[in-house]
Amino acid sequence: MQILNQNFFALFEQPQGFHLDMEALSATYRQLQNANHPDRFAGEGESERLKAVQLTSLINEAYDTLRSPMKRAAYLLQLAGVDTERVEQSDLSMDLLLEQMQLRESLAELPADDSALPQLEKLKKDVSEKMRARQQQFAELMQSEQLDAARKLFHEMQFLHKLTKEIDQGEEQRLDY
Amino acid sequence: MALLQISEPGGKPAAPKHRLAVGIDLGTTNSLVAASCGQKVEILPDDEGNYLMPSIVSYGTNSAPVVGHAALPAAVEDPANTIISVKRLLGRSLGEVSDDEQFGQYQFASTGVDSAPVLQTAAGDKNPVQVSADILSALAQRAERALKGKLEGVVITVPAYFNDAQRQQTKDAAQLAGLQVLRLLNEPTAAAVAYGLDSKDEGNVIVFDLGGGTFDVSLLSLQKGIFEVLATGGNTSLGGDDFDRALMALVRSKLGATEELNHKQTAQLKRLVIQAKHELSNSSSSELIFNDQTVRLTVEDFSAAVQDLVRQTITACRRVLRDAELDKDQIDNIVMVGGATRMPVIRQAVAEFFGKEPLTSIDPDKVVAIGAGIQADVLIGNKSADSFLLLDVNPLSLGIETMGELVEKIIPRNTTIPVARAQEFTTFKDGQTVMALHVVQGERELVKDCRSLARFELRGIPPMVAGAAKIRVTFQVDADGLLSVLAEELSTGTRAEIQVKPSYGLGSGEIEEMLQASQAHAQEDMQVRALREAQIEAQQLIDAIRAAETQDGDLLEEEERAQLDAAVAKLERAIADANKNDISEQTEALNKLSGEFAARRMDLHIAKALSGENIDSVESTND
Questions:
Q1: B 100-139 residues inside an 8 A Cβ radius of A
Q2: CA quadruple B156, B158, B164, B166: dihedral sign
Q3: Residue B619: which pLDDT band, with cuts at 50, 70 and 90?
Q4: Lowest-pLDDT range, B254-258, B529-533, B542-546?
Q5: Are A174 and A120 contacting, i.e. CB atoms less than 8 angstroms apart?
Q6: How far apart are CA B273 and CA B250, in angstroms?
């Protein structure tokens, strides 16, 4: 099947880049699912259904990748031939490390009960603003093909992403899930 | 349907033949059947006017099975031959149900633990498919009497959590009953359809289903006729019965009952309590008289008594929202399902949490069957055929066992299926040629707390140093939730493959219990994981030092060696004591202590390499 080798952006008829029209993305997703879902081939032969399973797996994977900013950024770098697994100490600026330390300290210092929730909320907002600024910058760097700078920025985004997850976990613990 | 029909002059309007199709809610406790009666889909009652049919089948010698209300007395008098809650047996193996208390009154034929359970009754052996078929036949007969014609198709609802085996057996039961299954429909979707939330609407729907003994909450997104299950959750040990128990405890404390009540008195009090609960749905207070004592109950009393239960239902809603990464103000509709959602305390809590009144205009006991009836009418061709598509998710994470009996999740729960995901693993020992793969399902961090699905081996890995081989493990889940796993060694292309039915016999209850357990144990699991990782790291360090001592032991002074061995022994004790902090400290200490040794070895090997001697040969000759 031709689709199987397609670039995720091409599959979803989106220009390759960090900024995406999310509404168009989900509309295309529904269209693709509607046309290819195995339920649509319920009455047909084994091979048709198998093809549908493969195809929808790919559609789901592509959608999952494009929908998530972190996965999308990694995918863009991967398409440009950049190894995102390799991180060196020198890739991370002193400023970033200081910023991370400060954010982490303020997270660790919060009280362990739900009185910390408003502060967690604020911390989350801070982090997400920093993330947004970096995403904007990342989009520009990819646009102008400054790949090494984009890779470094991606690693910074990974730090922030991990921090966001930890804030989420902190919230969950205090919300008693 | 307000348009007038205009027929060609002279010709008779070709009256479209109305084909008979019904929707069936095949429930654990009660079942219902619904059909389109003219404009509206309605629940079809029995001759006595009962809408609900108890899902009970009684088998006697030489007589037809008795189903529904008529079988109620037999459930008390002849429990061994009267099957209740057969839905809980569907798709499970004998091994899984034979020790389960709730099936204690039945005699199971000894067919082998992996085969389907067979119930021994006065009318002979019956499997869960046959019992379900008898319930379906009774519902179909009710429908055919009411509709005065033969049924051409049925839509049967199943819990969103139902696995493939359970779905297949539901379908088998319908076939056995001589019914044509148009579609198995998920219960939350059916409920959403009942409220007319179909192709015209767009948005996010919460389906809040509080039954007698279980609580399910699903979040569906609806856009252009596609229902996407974004997340599901709930609690199998929470239901309307718990609210009754809480109120009962309240009444007993108000009675100041010092003496124990006997069985009969308890039953009598329970009846009064339930009656009071119903009254409190419509008025602010209620009185009950028990043993010449009058107890006054107010809505406030009741709310306080069930506060904790209500909070649990809201917590589950919050969790589902979180899983779907949505805010509560992004929810457009809340659909209430299950008799227990009639309680105002529940409705208020839900309305307050979402900032929006839940939809309650359809009887919460009937809403699922009505949705199924609507879909049946569409699928049989009585209505326009813009049917919807349901995109499902896998309810539990799928993963693989890694070192230290830890689970590496490959497909996290709530991932839309079909899906394929791959992950690379490597060998642990030098020269390892076989890799054992253990596929597990669950949210916990340790293998023993998850459900084992399959074990298989990848053989013929070329011998390499530990960590050099690359083995790609691919998980593929199809639209029915069936998993297949492929392991492949990348340099040689050696493969091993296995088909797994991940959820065979894994009932919705178990799935939810496993989820709850994972939530309850998340913290503990994280600690266990940290401990295991520390233990593995420590052991690797010890192994490396031992190997180095064997190889280059002559680089060490006797005293140094004694110190090193003492530190190794200390770390080994720490590993055995399973104290994470202690292990980390001792690992750190050993690392420091062995630093000098490592540096000397490095110097030696560099010197040898520079002098033209190959390091590998040095190592092998020193062995």
A1: none
A2: negative
A3: very low
A4: B254-258
A5: yes
A6: 10
Answer yes or no: do B416 and A39 touch at CB < 8 A: no
Kindly list the residues from chain B whose CB atom is less than 8 angstroms away from the CB atom of residue A53.
418, 476, 478-479
Residue B577 falls in the annotated catalytic set: no
DSSP 8-state assignment for residue B382: S
Among A4, A28, A34, which would you mutate to test the B interface (most chain B Cβ atoms within 10 Å of its Cβ)?
A34
**Which residue type is seen at B199?**
S
DSSP B96-124: HHTT-GGGTTSPBP---TTSPP-EEETTE
Distance from CA of A175 to the nearest CA of B (A): 8
CB B482 within 8 A of CB B499: yes
Residues in chain A closer than 8 A to B478 (CB atoms)? 38, 53
CA distances from B532 to B427, B442, B527 (A): 18, 19, 9
Contact between chains at A177 and B390 (C-beta distance less than 8 A): no
ipTM of the complex, rounded to two decimals: 0.78
> Is B419 at the interface with chain A, CB within 8 A?
yes
Candidate list B87, B366, B409, B501, residue with the active-site label: B87
Q: Tell me if B457 sits within 8 A of B435, measured CB to CB.
A: yes
pLDDT, position A71: 95
Q: At what angle do helices B580-610 and B508-552 cross, to 10 degrees?
A: 40
* Percentage of residues of chain B with pLDDT beyond 90: 29
pLDDT tens-digit readout, B40-50: 899 999 989 99
Task: Write down the pLDDT at residue B539.
Answer: 85
A-chain residues near B476 (CB < 8 A): 53, 57
Question: Is B526 at the interface with chain A, CB within 8 A?
Answer: no
Burial of B4 (0-12, 13-18, 19+ CB in 10 A): exposed
Sign of CA dihedral B331, B343, B197, B316: positive
- Residue B433 identity (one-letter amino acid): T
Which segments of A37-146 does DSSP mark as H helices, in order? 46-67, 69-79, 94-108, 117-143
Query: Residue B275 in contact with residue B288, Cβ under 8 Å?
Result: yes
Q: Which domains does chain B have, with CATH numbers?
A: 4-239+307-393 (3.30.420.40), 396-520 (2.60.34.10), 523-609 (1.20.1270.10)
Q: Do A60 and B416 touch (CB under 8 A)?
A: yes
DSSP summary character for residue B17: P
Mean pLDDT of A81-88: 83
Query: What are the structure tokens assigned to B518, written together?
Result: 């994972």
**The two three-digit tokens of residue B499, written as one number:** 């088909």
Nearest CB among B224, B319, B418 relative to A38 is that of B418
**Strand, coil or helix: B296:** strand
Q: Please indicate if any CB of chain B lies within 8 Å of the CB of A64.
A: yes
Whose tokens are 């600026």? That residue is A93
Which pLDDT tens digit goes with each residue over A17-74? 999 999 999 899 988 988 888 767 755 667 887 888 889 999 999 999 999 999 999 9
Cβ of B490 under 8 Å from any chain A Cβ? no
Is B209 marked active-site? yes
B187 given a catalytic annotation: yes
* B25: annotated active-site residue: yes
| Chain B residues whose beta carbon lies within 8 Å of the beta carbon of residue A34 | 226, 389
Q: What is the mean pLDDT of chain B?
A: 82
Distances (CA, A) of B249 to B280, B295, B301, B525: 16, 13, 12, 35
Task: Give the number of C-alpha atoms closer than 13 A to the C-alpha of residue B24, restricted to the C-beta side.
Answer: 33
Chain B nearest-CA distance from A38, in A, is: 7
> Please, where are the H alpha helices in B226-298?
240-255, 263-280
What pLDDT was estimated at residue A28?
Answer: 93
Q: Does B421 touch chain A (CB under 8 A)?
A: yes
Residue of B nearest to A41 (CA): B479
Identify any residues that bridge with A47 across adjacent strands, giving them in sequence order. none
Evaluate if residue B435 carries a pLDDT over 60. Answer: yes
